[in-house]
Structure formats: C-alpha cells, structure tokens
Amino acid sequence: MKTLALYGGSFDPPHVGHKAVIEALRKLEYIDEIIIMPTFLNPFKSKSHAPSELRFNWLEKIFKEFENVVIDRYEVNQERQVSTIESVKHLLKKYKDIYLVIGADNLHSLNSWDNFQELEKLVTFIVASRDNIIVDKKFIRLNIDEKISSSALRKNIDISMLPIECAKEIEKHYNK
Predict the structure, then answer these.
(1) Radius of gyration in angstroms for the set of CA atoms belonging to the chain, rounded to a whole number
(2) pTM of the predicted model over 0.85
(3) pLDDT higher at 169 or 130
(4) What's the CA dihedral at 75, 14, 116, 141 to 10 degrees?
(5) What is the pLDDT of residues 24-74, one digit of tens each?
(6) What's residue 176's pLDDT?
C-alpha cells in the first residue's frame, strides 16, 4: 500500500499557489502519490463560483504532466458537500498512510471540521505556510512562498497568478 498526500479544496479558481504546494509535496521522499480532490461544494460554503466539473477539468489540465499526481473525482461525484473525514475513510481502503495537506489559513477552523478528533487520529497533517501564520510544531510545515488566495483572485483576476495551462480559460470564466 502506498503513502498518500491528500490535497483537497475548492480550487475556485486554481492558482500558482496550489501548483507550488504540489511542487513542494513532490520533493518529500515519504510521499508515494499525491491526490488532488476538488470539492463538489466546500462544507463551509453555500456556493461555488465555478462548477465542480469545470474546476476538476482545470486541475486535470494543470497537473496532467505530473508523475504520481492524480485528480480524484470522489467528492465531485457525490454531488453534495463531503466532509474531509468521509474522503479520508474512502481513501484508507486503498492507502496505508495519509498525509492531509491544508493551508495555514485553515488552522483556526480545524476544531470545527466534522469529526475532527477522529480525523486527527487517521491522518498526519501537512500545513502549507501562508500569510506569516504560525504553524504549530505538531504539524509538518510545508514552506510555500506564494502570496495568493482564490478569494482574492476572484475579486481581481490577475492572469500572472493563474497556471499557464488554463489561465485564459479561468480568466474568461471569472471575468464574465
């Protein structure tokens, strides 16, 4: 059984920061495979700005040349909000160890995640640095040097912050 890094999120839109996280994860010798799992709808949000199928397709284009990186349809196929613990339990049927990758901006809300105490026993957290947020030593810190967020990008699309593989498509969608 392989060791997995699970990187879930809305990816609404995907940006160079997301790509930087994957590049950094690929350098970790204890990770055999990386799964990027876009949400159908984030459990903490009431809507998405781009449909899940479109976000999934963008991620496939961006990461198609990356070895051992898989874009997983599990949450998109559920066509509902899916909690992280549900996705982790689904993946534990196939993988021995799961590293759950989150952005440092999620640290403040971890205790409100569905069944967080159980989730914490099932995974090892890798936290991607962001906005000078302090990452507790109990987590593995992944140093990322991109100053970008999807919510900021939606307000002001900057094509230089979008992955080149589908930058024009993304820009066109958000500048309707």
Answers:
(1) 15
(2) yes
(3) 169
(4) 140
(5) 999 999 999 999 999 999 999 999 999 999 999 999 999 999 999 999 999
(6) 74
Q: Which domains does the chain have, with CATH numbers?
A: 2-174 (3.40.50.620)
Cis omega (within 30 of 0) on the bond before 13? yes
Alpha-carbon distance of 127 to 117, in angstroms, equals 17
Torsion angle of the four alpha carbons 161, 167, 172, 175, in this order, in degrees rounded to the nearest 10: 0
> What is the β-pairing status of strands 69-71 and 33-38?
parallel
Q: Which residue has the tokens 């809507």?
A: 47
Which amino acid is located at 153 in the chain?
A: L
At CB < 8 A and 24+ separation, what contacts does 18-22 make?
18/62, 18/163, 19/62, 19/163, 20/144, 20/145, 20/146, 21/101, 21/103, 21/128, 21/142, 21/144, 22/63, 22/66, 22/69
- Name the average pLDDT for the chain: 95
Say how many residues make up the chain: 176
Cα 110 to Cα 5: distance, rounded to the nearest angstrom: 18
